[in-house]
Specification:
single chain, alpha+beta, Jelly Rolls, Glycosyltransferase, Maltose phosphorylase, domain 3, 3 domains, six-stranded antiparallel sheet, six-stranded mixed sheet
Length: 608
Amino acid sequence: MKPSRFMLLTAVALLTPLVPAASATAGPRAAADSRPQLALPDPGFENGGVGWTFSAGAGVGEGNVHSGSRFLYLDAGTGKWAAQTITAPRDGSYDFSAWIGSAGTGGTYTIRRNGETVGTVDLPQRPTYARYTISRVDLKAGDRLEIVFGSGSAWVNADEYHTSGTGTAPYGPTYWAGYANRSAYYSRDMTHQLAGAHLIGLDTENETMLRSYAASATAGDEYFPVWSLNFDAKTYLSIDYHSPDDYVREVPAVFELVEKAAQAYLWTGDRRYVDDPVLWDYYRHTTEQFIDLHNSTVPNGKVKVAEGTGNGIFAGAASYNEQDGDNLAEAGDTIASEYQAYLAMDVLARGKGDTALAKKYDRKAADLKAYFNDTWSGTGSGAGMVRAYTTSGTPVTGWGKENSVFMPMKQIIDPGPRNDAYLDYIQTEELGPNGSPNIESTTYLPDMFFRNNRADTAWWWMKKIYGERDLQHVNSGQGPDGDYPEVSFTLVSQTVQGLMGITPNAAAHQVTTESRLPSGMKWLRVADIPVGKDTITVRHDGATRTTLTNNARHGSYIWEARFPGVHKRITVDGVPQRARTKTVDGVTYTYATPVVPAGATAMVQVTG
């Protein structure tokens, strides 16, 4: 995959004021010399690069600053440069320092005297700023000094501030999950796209991208992963990452990465999700140390709820709702995502063979859900339900966009009248003037309604999202809504996981189906759905008959065919079975569990 523009190789935030070295000397008359010391015009680029000369693909930008408000950038590809030439007014020996960030290799920082190089720094790959110094450059009055920054062949960041440049890029197995005018994938986007990515064959990409986030979450960063990475799966996007203390962090994403790793494991059965130490350490740190380190503002009794700082996204926001994130310590999308991360750890620990650890996390999930429903969410319903807490501990009700939507979507609200009222409230708000103008937020709505058994409403939102695909996205550089990757990826996953109600467990060779066809849709068939190394084909005829084909050459699948409601009669391939029922998330189902051999087809039907 290649973006239409290539990226910033080197960012130079500041050339420190040029001062004589400690041993500088200008002869016996130096103390009385009234001539000025060497002075560099616009060393911090705050005046737009006055006195500097730029090649194509170099210039002054805003955003990725070390200090001040501007910096010098060089796009990828050899031959990009920025330089300044000045004449030494007096004799002296000088040190030259610059703060430079380089997300690729091959860049250079060079000092020349009268056309000859006297010092060069070959810049290493380092996405954060570091100070580089070329020391003890001897100059005589009248010497011509050149300061030159040169580009390399590697690539780094493309975004609204860095749009020019050409070259090639050593991409890893990744896919686009974010704005088209940014050369990166984002944790929020890719977690929501993960199931759709699996269904279209991007399993290697999912694992690479999840692992890249896991690797970025270190103890020094208090186990926060970065927000966005370039397509090499290792370079932090500069518009979102300024320094180790100044980068975008949104707490729900930390937990969603664990939840989606478990989802990827269930779809693929890939042992890397439970055996890779980088991934496993991330899961454990997220669900233990991360919460401990970010749980000091609002008291929560025996349970722990991860918190944001209340100081905006570059300091750690409690919510995906960036317009509502300031001053929030805890938010509905964080506590709901934390709940799902605990359930994910149950899945991942069982996959690893650690039953005791799985039970531990199952209990943590149950305790957190009970606390949410009994205490955290207050006693109100609809608009009166608590969906956040400020840093002063004040509960927040009303409409919170993502921090409202995620609570029923992640199923932390107990099923029943209160959950139903909140779903009604969300529908009203989303259709009113306070609804999100960003298609990214809207793509969560079908997921939320499908998971709460409102198939007609979920299908209505799917059609609305698809119908608005040609509208201009709120980010003008993105193009139409339909080109935003989350739209297409989620429509795919909402068809398979939503309408078809397919839940896999590839490692155990199990699959569950549940028809969620909306009113008026008589049947739906989806062929060659990848589960593990095999595929299945599923057809629903209304809500009473489902047919499954195991397309594998070897190996059977245990199929749990569910049908909402209590039915008197259930048959498998026309043969009557004992009608068994179970209640899942407040819904009672009649079900059967036939074993479907490789290459075989089975049909389950309910009547009465």
